Amino acid sequence: MTAHHTSNSANKPEQGKNQNLLYNPTFRSILFQVLAVLALVFFFYTIVNNALTNLESRGIATGFGFLTETAGFGIGQSLIEYDSTHSYGRTFFVGLLNTALVSVLGIAFATILGFLMGVARLSKNWLLSRFAAVYIETFRNIPLLLQIFFWYFAVLQTLPSPRQSISVGEWLFLNVRGLYMASPVFEQGSMWIGIALLVAIIFCLGFAKWARNKQDLTGQQTPVFTISLAVIIGLPFLAYLASGMPVSIDYPELKGFNFRGGVTIIPELAALTLALSIYTASFIAEIVRSGINAVSHGQTEASMALGLSRGRTLSLVVIPQALRVIIPPLTSQYLNLTKNSSLAMAIGYPDLVSVFAGTTLNQTGQAIEIIAMTMAVYLTLSLLTSMLMNIYNAKVALVER
């Protein structure tokens, strides 16, 4: 009787411990998260398994073996070597590079234009500020797809034919089929120019850091931009002369009904880049304006009292502080621009959606694999953009002492 009573007494603390564990907020949160992940995995497994079963019952093969098959169709623009004899896997990389190209160009142009318009919106010049306001309110309230159609059909498709091209000497020709520009041809020995350019960039980065430390210690400013520009231009030019000028020019020439040689910018790329840049810049301008307004006006008054011009006040005092407010929403606009580039198929630009999720999907019927790969690309591009912007945001963030 005594032993039985002792056994029950020993089990009570253990039962109480289990009950306390169930009421522990940390344990319960982890448990619920694990259950949620398992439910999500089971959900997607069920969907994929059912889809594969249906495809097999219809005699449709699954897997990624189609990537090695011959594509059999041409692509209007390719940053890597490509023709109709290449595989579907090659079309994937062609579309990926074309998507990355228009995204990078759009982000660069939209950032520059957005910052200019954001600063202009706050200008004391009435005409300049009104122009910026009209630009912002116009382009951010017109659907992006309509803007793409405008630049492609109403502007670029009205240009003259190749024989009546708008030209600038032998260097540039603009017509309905695109923009043709002279391009450099790097011959043997030109690698020294690249090495000189790399050395110049490294020097400029180190020089900028030295000038910043000098200003922090002494307050003296150094013309970093002017000196860096001179080094970046001058050092490669000296290497060009010293290596025997191993760079020639390939001029575009009209042969038959079209131009050959040089660099070609197809109208689809130009229209898409213009529309994405102008549309996104209207949102970036408002982000910049709000970021500048978030900086205390006393900062501007103090810098002006020290004798700094308005331009120097803006670049040295206001913008560095405003960046802490600007960067997070700016990241969202970069992500939106990258995803909006998928509208390219509306005008026939050979991006990933048009080439791979469009033509390749229609020819192979591998819907699950192709759509999954396309989604993975956009997810990867977005995560990479977010990572880079978060790193930059951490560098400009306030550091408390």
UniProtKB/TrEMBL annotation:
Residue span(s) of domain ABC transmembrane type-1: 96-389
Alphabetical keyword list: Amino-acid transport, Cell membrane, Membrane, Transmembrane, Transmembrane helix, Transport
InterPro entries (UniProt xref): AA_ABC_transptr_permease_3TM (IPR010065), ArtM/GltK/GlnP/TcyL/YhdX-like (IPR043429), MetI-like (IPR000515), MetI-like_sf (IPR035906)
Main location: membrane
GO biological process: amino acid transport
Protein location: Cell inner membrane; Cell membrane
GO molecular function, one term: transmembrane transporter activity
The keyword Cell division appears for this protein: no
Annotated family: Belongs to the binding-protein-dependent transport system permease family. HisMQ subfamily.
The protein's name in its UniProt record: Amino acid ABC transporter permease
